[in-house]
């Protein structure tokens, strides 16, 4: 695996720390940053959408812009005010310092509440990475924009705008099985992880370049078959989404340290299905195509969208490694022992040990040794 892929894998692991059942959000944001695409996160209020995005942005570094949109949000609040000095000279230009046009990572909460003026200007930034307003024409350094909302819009005009966000992640309340973990993490939420010493966006850019050069010939037939299956199942996939899905496949390969895409990268395809029901249908109709999916950097997302054994094994190895790092070498507390036992139970419930990967067998052995100390 390349040094850049390793650096991003470690950044993702740091971003996931302190997130409960939101690991997929962090991973898909990084996937889209490498792909040069944007992502929508849909979920009810209070489901930690903002926290997941902020933690990921903190780890990526670079210039970050965040704003909560409302129906009365003025374009100047997002794109910058009119430059009064230039206005006196008869030119309508805008001061964009610290605003969205100069951001490298952006998060727009309640994105569909923006006015027509805001959304029309935003389209140019999302599609072309160009800000045009008045006499101002600015190339934007945006790698990824994350839009968040409580639900998808019913208005056809807003649905067309939403189509510019290629990937969709739907979140719901943390399941009961992880409530204890949520309470523990929530109580200590004030202690934030330190940010990386330097921005990781240069690594993102190098991986993006690698993704653009990724060899897709080995999976193009499977991609075409997948899109046909989705459409036949009633999942609305526009031509634009079909073409751009290749970027997600290539980015997944690059983040896994490969220069050619394989069947292991097709797990990203359900992400392009536009609704929660459509994603469920996509998982079902593509189950055989995505079954081999796995990714050493995006272990939670790969498991979520493949529901495959190999992806699950990779995630458990990563979870075990993170747990061992947190525990250190000191004696186990009662809660620590319960966490180790819970991970062992999940391994034993999901796998016949003799058939499990060597990495998973080794991790189980390490966890057992910790318990027996």
How would you summarize the topology of this molecule?
Elements lengths: L2 H14 L6 H13 L3 E4 L6 H12 L3 E5 L6 H5 L4 H5 L16 E5 L6 H13 L1 E4 L2 E4 L4 E6 L6 H7 L4 E4 L8 H9 L13 H12 L7 H13 L6 H17 L20 H10 L1 H4 L8 H8 L2 H19 L6 H17 L7 H15 L1
Helix pairs in contact: 1-2, 1-3, 1-9, 2-3, 2-9, 2-11, 2-14, 9-11, 14-15, 15-16, 15-17, 16-17
Keywords:
373 residues; alpha/beta; 5-stranded parallel β-sheet; two-stranded antiparallel ribbon; 17 helices; globular
Task: Kindly describe this structure.
Strand 4 (130-133) and strand 5 form a beta hairpin. The longest helix is centred in the last third of the chain and has 19 residues, at 309-327. The mean pLDDT is 89. The protein has 17 helices and 7 strands. The protein is globular and about 75 Å long. It is 52% helix and 9% strand. By secondary structure, the chain is of the alpha/beta class. The strands form 2 sheets. It has a 5-stranded parallel beta sheet, with helices on one face. Strands 4-5 form a two-stranded antiparallel ribbon.
